[in-house]
Design brief:
Strand content: under 5%
Distance between the termini: 23 Å
CATH superfamily: NCX, central ion-binding region
Oligomer: single chain
CATH class: Mainly Alpha
Order of helices and strands: HHHHHHHHHHHHHH
Largest sheet: none
Number of domains: 1
Number of strands: 0
Number of helices: 14
CATH topology: A middle domain of Talin 1
Length: 342
């Protein structure tokens, strides 16, 4: 049984899509609020909370899609679902900059942790590119690069926390900088209760995101589009809704660092989809089964991440900024490229 055949009829997919997306919007807003309180209550900081808590939790649905696709012999769908998610989630920052009046979000979210996480993401994507370019080798069915990606991600999260606690560099504070101000009410909140609420909301987002992803897969089956196109433009977008909702909710709550950290952290976690897919793909190394358009998608995501990292360092003060315009232009150009090449 493949992912394509294990789908719902078209009318069920369309009927399920709207309430599932609405549930993600509602639960995602709550998730951002609880993550903000957890950042204050535990003292880990908004950037680390975004990268670790929001990043992993809002990506669960996408992880499920990639694993199911890989185990069903759809390697391009599994990998492009990961890379497409990184691309669209990066574009979310620029879209939010367009609708958010006032300061540029990347400027307001002056955080060394977010900059570090952006470079960590480029490092992980570079490892994936090496996996694409090396011979098809497997250790217990898994390519060494997949193991290395998982290890580097774990160590990167440890370093991210160290950067937060003991920064060796600080952003210049301006009138537009939104500094982290702990919520006094969060200090007296019960930590087990906050963690329990966060876990329940995370489960809700994951279930609703899975319904959205199944709806996207069903639409794919009806249209007959290829795995790379659908993974990049359908399932990845569908399962990325939590990142958009939580980022926008965090911006509305003036938690700029949490918003940007959630996007970059989610992108970094999304790279692990490929390692997990490699473990569940039984036809050999998943890297050897990919196509040129998959490599194009990888280069696209590296370019988008580099532009975002440059924007976090240069810190345009007003409006969408040059990096926002560049992100939107590159994202739309990549969508056209994937559509034509796929």
């Amino acid at each position: 049984m493949t992912v394509i055949t294990a789908t719902w009829p078209l009318w069920i997919a369309l009927l399920a899509l709207v309430p599932a997306a609405a549930a993600i919007a509602y639960l995602g807003t709550g998730l951002a609020n609880v993550a903000d309180k957890l950042a204050d209550r535990t003292g880990i900081g908004e950037a680390a909370a975004g990268a670790i808590l929001l990043g992993a939790t809002t990506s669960i649905a996408g992880l499920i899609v990639s694993i199911v696709a890989a185990s069903s012999d759809e390697p391009s769908l599994a990998v492009s679902n990961s890379l497409g998610g990184i691309a669209v989630q990066t574009s979310f920052i620029a879209w939010i900059d367009l609708v958010h009046r006032g300061v540029n979000i990347e400027h307001a979210a002056a955080s060394l942790t977010n900059i570090f996480t952006a470079f960590l993401l480029m490092l992980l994507l570079g490892l994936i590119l090496i996996g694409f370019s090396t011979p098809e080798v497997a250790i217990f069915g898994v390519h060494p690069v997949s193991l290395l990606v998982a290890g580097v991600y774990g160590y990167g999260m440890v370093l991210s926390q160290r950067v937060t606690n003991e920064p060796m560099w600080r952003a210049v504070s301006t009138r537009s900088t939104v500094n982290e101000e702990p919520d006094p009410s969060a200090q007296g909140a019960s930590l087990p209760r906050l963690l329990g609420r966060f876990a329940l909301l995370g489960v809700g987002v994951a279930l609703a995101g899975f319904v959205v992803s199944r709806s996207g897969l069903s639409l794919m089956a009806e249209t007959g589009l290829g795995g790379t196109v659908v993974g990049t433009l359908v399932t990845s977008v569908s399962t990325s809704i939590p990142e958009l909702v939580t980022a926008y909710a965090a911006v509305r709550a003036r938690s700029m660092t949490l918003a940007v950290g959630g996007i970059i952290g989610g992108n970094t976690f999304d790279v692990l989809f490929i390692s997990a897919s490699d473990a569940f793909y039984r036809q050999g190394s998943i890297y050897g089964a990919l196509t040129e358009v998959d490599v194009f998608t990888l280069g696209w995501t590296i370019l988008l991440t580099a532009i975002l990292g440059a924007g976090l360092i240069s810190r345009e003060q007003r409006g969408i900024g040059y990096e926002g315009v560049a992100i939107l232009a590159v994202y739309l150009a990549g969508v056209v490229g994937v559509t034509l090449l796929g």
